[in-house]
Amino acid sequence: MQRPSDRWIDRNGGLASGPDVDRLRRAAAPIVAAGGVPVRLSVVATPALGAWSWPDGSIFVSRGLLHIVTDAELAAIVGHEIGHLSTQTGATRQGALSETSGDLATESAADEFAVRLLDRNHLPKTAMRTALQKLLSLSDATESRDGLDARLAKLP
């Protein structure tokens, strides 16, 4: 039986394998261990910039995003998505770093969750901020830029 995420994966270029997946899992390992919810990490082959979480614990990071962030920023992104899963706000909508994010309060709460996980694992708390700044610098959608600016104002 096909899961809803399977159709979404197909529409987004399928799943990547190899070094990209290895890097994602390695960078996110301490955050996943501390996150408090079971997750399954995958890389979707799309060059789009995004990260998404699904209620079944699946977290997807796009190849495009993976290639522009540091390992600490990648850990922050996964922490953000775990923040959604821990409150079951991930659903099937776009996540941490995508052109169409959720409401500001929900996204900011997930950012703060990620910062706490980073701090608990002795990773730079600023990684969430720098990941969002990278997306902001590459975003051409005014709606996304405004939301990202507001989220940045709340981060260390």
Write a structural description.
There is one protein chain. With 156 residues, this protein is mainly alpha-helical. It has one domain: Metalloproteases ("zincins"), catalytic domain (Zincin-like). The protein contains 7 helices and 3 strands. A 3-stranded mixed sheet has the order 1-3-2. Helix 2 crosses helix 4 and helix 4 packs across helix 5. The radius of gyration is 14 Å and the shape is globular. The termini are far apart. About 7% of the residues have low confidence.
Largest sheet: 3 strands, mixed
Rg? 14 Å
Number of domains: 1
Provide the CATH top-level class: Alpha Beta
Distance between the termini: 44 Å
Please identify, by name, the CATH architecture: 2-Layer Sandwich
% residues in beta strands:
5-15%
Identify the notable features of this structure and list them briefly.
156 residues; mainly alpha; Zincin-like; 3-stranded mixed beta sheet; 54% helix; 8% strand
Write a brief structural summary.
With 156 residues, this protein is mostly helical.
